[in-house]
Design a protein that fits this description.
This protein has 259 residues and is of the alpha/beta class. The protein has nine helices and ten strands. Bound molecules: adenosine-5'-triphosphate. GO terms for molecular function: ATP binding; ATP hydrolysis activity; transmembrane transporter activity.
Length: 259
């Protein structure tokens, strides 16, 4: 479970270019819930993820993971509890190494520091099983160098590597934004398969309204550093892209009227 309580962050405080990134943001994500975060540019989405991961220190407020207050916890200690997948498919993996070697690297990095190095049969069988969750056939390409994979396969590999240590929370930071629409859909389907199989509590930031409609249990809309709208349950199942875009345009209309 993730809870954010009254999170506030102001950049360049007191200066003419002062920026309120988070303005008393409250958010709660139940264990096993898949929340999709949307919002216009500058709404505070990245700031929220940075506050959760510890990459950004809050001015005030709290972040709790499964009831533990991690607000003051340094990034490297939080990293053991959460996984984050970024936009760039080239960043999460080592290009010149094979799929299996990348999986081993992630293993060594994430949890079992006492693991003896080496790709033994047991470990390879485990990697095959985990890669099969994605439904992309990567389990049959353990010896392929990662640079020979497509962007979508590579991004899906980053995802499965990131969640190897059974994180309490998965953060998806526009992880399909750099991919063409068809590949983005493939990666989303692979994501959902892995998230469901591993029962991960997940928070995904996206600008793709179709993905916000199609995936996840709830849609959380941020605006000016706080949650403006949350749609879940039956309402979420019925929501359309037009409805979501409507919520954006209400705001824009108000801003036009005010100007
Ligand atoms: N490191 C920083 N220094 C100064 N201002 C920042 C910094 N990070 C964020 N901001 C400001 O805080 C506000 C929220 O930014 P943030 O990046 O969190 O929004 P976002 O919703 O992720 O936007 P986008 O969709 O464009 O990625 C913006 O006004 C932004 O300019």
């Amino acid at each position: 479970m993730l809870e954010i309580r009254s999170a506030r962050k102001v950049f360049y405080k007191g200066r003419p270019d002062e920026k309120k990134a988070l303005d008393g943001l409250d958010l709660s994500l139940a264990t096993g819930e898949f929340g999709v975060v949307i919002g216009s540019n500058g709404a505070g989405k990245s700031s929220m993820l940075n506050a959760i991961s510890g990459a950004m220190v809050l001015d005030s407020g709290q972040v709790l993971i499964n009831g533990d207050d991690v607000t003051g916890m340094p990034v490297h200690r939080r990293a053991a509890r959460l996984a984050r997948v970024f936009q760039d498919p080239m960043k999460g993996t080592a290009a010149s190494m094979t799929v299996a070697e990348n999986m081993l690297l992630a293993d060594l990095r994430s949890r079992k520091r006492t693991l003896r190095l080496g790709l033994n049969a047991k470990r390879l069988a485990d990697y095959r099983e985990r890669l099969a969750l994605l439904g992309l056939g990567l389990e049959n390409r353990l010896d392929t160098r990662v640079e020979l994979l497509s962007g979508g396969q590579r991004q899906s590999l980053s995802l499965i590597m990131a969640v190897g240590g059974s994180p309490e929370l998965l953060l998806l930071d526009e992880h399909t934004a750099a991919l063409d629409p068809r590949t983005a859909d493939i990666v989303m389907q692979a994501t959902v398969r892995a998230v469901e199989a591993l029962k991960l509590t997940t928070l995904m930031v996206t600008h793709n309204m179709q993905h916000a409609v199609d995936y996840g249990h709830s849609v959380i809309m941020l605006d000016a550093g706080k949650v403006r709208l949350e749609i879940s349950g039956e309402e979420k199942k019925r929501i359309t892209v037009a409805d979501l875009i409507g919520h954006f345009s209400v705001k824009t209309d108000r801003m036009l009227l005010a100007s």
